[in-house]
Amino acid sequence: MSRPSSDDFELTTEDVRTIDAIISRLDPPPTKKLTIDYPLKKWRQLVDEVAGTYKFTIWDFTNDLSHRDFLERVLKASPPSLERKLGKAVKELDRKFYDSTFEVDHPTSGSTEMFTKEAFPWRYRVPIRHLKGEFDV
What we know:
Layout: E1 5-6, E2 9-10, H1 13-25, H2 37-51, H3 58-77, H4 80-99, E3 101-103, E4 125-127
Helix pairs in contact: 2-3, 2-4, 3-4
């Protein structure tokens, strides 16, 4: 069983079991079997790419934001102690993401009804530095 970790964050075996149970009950369910380490890794990867010069398209960027959406769904369904632990790691990545992006008036994809700014603030941000000219959202 994989135990995601960062410098100050490690999940216990019980945490991983709890998260696996949460993931199995999500509605709608993931299209494939997932553990929490995959969306965490993908969110970290996007944040690192955005912190440099983002080289991909708005479509790639928007697709990668779905990993943060998934993490939020897990956080909201987690017991408080796990939400604090996992939330701390996610919030550190969020802070780096916000420092490397700027806010826009509407979500990068979908509608404002589907992605409200209060629930999905990362959907209302685009990279400050990017190579593609497609970020005129």
